[in-house]
Inverse folding.
């Protein structure tokens, strides 16, 4: 899909990190961008800077997502591109024994919260976006749209405490091919990126020493990924009409250890 001013894109989680980098990179190609995010101040700021529109959307809410697509389409037209970056994580062992002998297990409300945001939230945005893309005329390539999702290497090498996060991201990986198959006859493609360790606010929360230690575990280059490197692959997945039904690791060769 040729990227230019005739193309509109919705980026969930576009107020920060990987989504922000992708929103900025798409806007640089002339694409009209709508940012879906809970973080209003940051979302407004990024949207202002790239000449896009911010929509206050919670991907776990059906009404919020419907209202977001309505507002985005009124402002920038029906999107041909959806990039799903909204997500978060948590950490707790399935069951564990504390020093004082107390036994606990992973809270089911916390398990469900991560599935709601990372997996169901992603599918909710895909379903609503794809239905909108089907109303568009195909481009000369036969394409109506392109969808990019964000999983994680934790879908394949989940660490201690990541049962919920890994399950949510494994779900995103697992649904990529069936979604691509569902939408193929309408000319809509679907691909997923499995990022390794990227330098975003999510990772920076641990401080510079933590970031340095994490970076040293990466095979080559021995550093955290730059969000622009994520955006570059997301854009290639949109741009290249032969990219479809794929789950691609982008991780500097890291394979995560148990902890
Ligand atoms: N940074 C990494 O190393 C890394 C690695 C693997 C996977 N990922 C995945 O990449 C995605 C983006 O992560 P990031 O590092 O850019 O994080 P980030 O925290 O910088 O950005 C995530 C954005 O999602 C938004 N968000 C969270 N819940 C939301 C909801 N319910 N509705 C709407 N917006 C919501 C947040 O407000 C935030 O702006 C996430 O899905 C994350 O799991 C990140």
């Amino acid at each position: 899909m040729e990227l230019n001013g005739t193309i509109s894109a919705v980026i969930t989680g576009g107020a920060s990190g990987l989504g922000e980098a992708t929103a900025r990179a798409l806007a640089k190609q002339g694409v009209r961008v709508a940012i879906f995010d809970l973080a209003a101040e940051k979302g407004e700021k990024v949207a202002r800077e790239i000449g896009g529109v911010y929509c206050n959307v919670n991907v776990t809410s059906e009404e919020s997502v419907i209202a977001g697509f309505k507002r985005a389409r009124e402002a920038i037209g029906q999107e041909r591109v959806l990039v799903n970056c909204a997500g978060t994580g948590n950490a707790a062992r399935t069951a564990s024994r504390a020093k004082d002998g107390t036994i606990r297990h992973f809270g089911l409300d916390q398990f469900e919260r991560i599935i709601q945001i990372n997996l169901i939230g992603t599918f909710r945005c895909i379903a609503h976006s794809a239905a909108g893309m089907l109303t568009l005329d195909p481009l000369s390539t036969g394409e109506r749209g392109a969808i990019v999702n964000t999983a994680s290497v934790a879908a394949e090498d989940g660490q201690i405490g990541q049962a919920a996060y890994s399950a949510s991201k494994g779900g995103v990986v697992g649904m990529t091919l069936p979604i691509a198959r569902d939408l193929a006859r309408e000319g809509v493609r679907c691909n997923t990126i499995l990022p390794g360790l990227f330098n975003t606010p999510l990772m920076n929360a641990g401080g510079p020493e933590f970031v340095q230690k994490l970076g040293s575990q990466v095979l080559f280059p021995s550093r955290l990924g730059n969000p622009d490197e994520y955006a570059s692959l997301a854009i290639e997945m949109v741009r290249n009409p032969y990219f479809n039904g794929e789950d691609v690791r982008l991780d500097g060769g890291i394979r995560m250890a148990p902890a």
Observations:
- The two ends are 40 Å apart (CA to CA).
- The pocket of nicotinamide-adenine-dinucleotide is lined by residues 12-13, 15-19, 37-39, 57-60, 85-89, 117-118, 121, 150, 152, 195, 197-198, 200-203 (CB under 6 Å).
- The first helix runs from residue 17 to 28.
